[in-house]
Amino acid sequence: MEVALLFVLGLAALAGGVAMTVLLATRLPMDVLVTAQEHGRFAGLGSSQESDGVGRARQTRVVPAAGELAYA
To answer: Most buried of 37, 60, 65, 69 (most Cβ within 10 A)?
Structure first.
């Protein structure tokens, strides 16, 4: 019985975390998100990737596929 109760409490905690994440993602006002982006909370995740500074987008690396490595 104790294991079942622990399992149910774990599922309840997981469901609570999922619910809070969904609420935060869907209910935060746009002003809060814009302010957070301007102050670097979401640095590099904005639609404008040309800005320099902390969190800027890095140049993409070209990684060869597994088939290309076989003939190197």
So the answer is: 37
